[in-house]
Write a structure and sequence with these properties.
There is one protein chain. The chain has a domain of 106 residues. It is mostly helical and 454 residues long. It contains 23 helices and no strands. The termini are far apart. It comes from Salimicrobium jeotgali. Keywords: Membrane, Transmembrane, Transmembrane helix. This is Citrate transporter-like domain-containing protein.
Amino acid sequence: MRDFLYDRLYIFYSAVFLLNIIHTFTENDTLYFVIGVLSILMILLAFPRASRVFRVLGTVLLTAGGFFFLSGSLSLGDIPGLFAGNVGLLLLLSVLPWMNSAVKAGRYNKLLKGLLQSGTGTLGQLYGRSEATMVSLAAFLNLSSATISQDLLKEQLGRFSPDVRNSFVSMATLRGYSLALLWSPLEILLATSIFITGADYLQVLPWMLLISLAGFFLDTLAGRRKFGNYELQKETKQKNSYGRGKLKGFILALVLFLSTVVFLANVINFEFLFSVTIAIVPFAFLWSTILKRRKSFWLIGWSAWKRHTNHLDNFIVLLLSLSVLTETLNASPYLELLQQPVIAYSDSPVVIMIIIQLTFLLMTLAGVHPLATMGIFGGISGLLMEALPPVTLAVLLSSSAIATVPSAPYGLIVTITSVNFHMNPYRIVWKNLPFTIICGSIGTAVALLTMIVH
């Protein structure tokens, strides 16, 4: 009976998400209270099924939230609303598989294989191609781009020692993946930073692309230098036979999706997070229809969506408990203590930027998900925006958070790589830590540049 109910949690979650969409248009206080009550039920259902790391993190966040609640002026009637703040983020996470399903239905995952199998002479050259491929395609393929490329690279690099192969894969794929996340509208960390700051995605996008390009250029040079002396066998020098037309179609679809999101956010005046969320399913459906893959899209998408939504437990625990912490912190007198460092350095934005970058890095290395750190800064976003403009803060928060992705010991991409190649996750973290520091520093420098330009 228990398994029967858990297998159909997607129905309950979808009902809550639907109510949240209705509330976005109506802004009804009673409806928001109902969403809060249902959110409490969601976290109660998800908590036993969440992984140990997220249960511990959720407990810490809820305990801190409880402390701030008791110290503030909130009443018992306010409690349900404390849990409802991040339901929109959960909705975005829920619909992401539909875009990935359109990619699979259109067989664009084969495009990744074709690009990686194109002729290269050395591992250094393959490093640049592997990272470029990840940056280009991970925006839509997301985690599947990493798993596909890692499986292929494992086969291509079979004759090299495990140390060389593992170093190559853990660097090229994880770093390329994070460089793609910097500008992808489907990336939850970027969407959250824009949600917190209220910045315009269209204004943030060029700066994020600049960070991505700078990071790619520097890391490609480092990869060529590190792996340039390793020759590939002739049989691995294959021509890309899958067709440039497929790549052009993929890039066109990406541009159209970005244009759709910008239209909804800037013309219709929806919030960026909501614009991305409501655009995904209709766009993915139309895309698969144009490709004449509509049946495959529904077959792949329906099962993937149900499975994914049924197992949102970790994110439910994290985001809903984070909502409680953020809301109670804003109503607590202890907020002033957290504000003191920002006030002290309000005339030194560079110091504030460095503090934010280091906080993301240290919290991630300690096992705290960057979304949780993002939420903490979200609690004092009003004060931060007195010292930093919204675009600057959005660039800083998102780049600092995403730069830690290859170095997050309990992150999903690191865990997948660790399992695939039987590597200690902390060994992966150690190899990617220099990249995280450099990429985060580039983000901080670009954030500073946005202040000078604007």
